[in-house]
Amino acid sequence: MALMITDECINCDVCEPECPNDAIYMGAEFYEIDPHKCTECVGHFDEPQCVQVCPVACIPIHPAHVESRETLWQKFERLAAAKAKAAAAQPQAPSAGA
To answer: How far apart are CA 84 and CA 82, in angstroms?
Structure first.
């Protein structure tokens, strides 16, 4: 199940940095969650971190993106593999002592 941010969002900026998958971004009017990146923090934390820090409780389950825990875990594994591949492709900076 991906999460979503409703129009009750007050744009307080606390949820975005908490997302381990970089799924939260500023939309046209308020923050939004990319359902293709949201794993509800499966693989990272026991509970969704954005829900934990949201002061107005505007982050429910997205009804159009209901997923099982197994599906969320598979999404986490795909995202982690893609992130590792991207990191490996980045040129390494020279060390400070070089």
So the answer is: 5
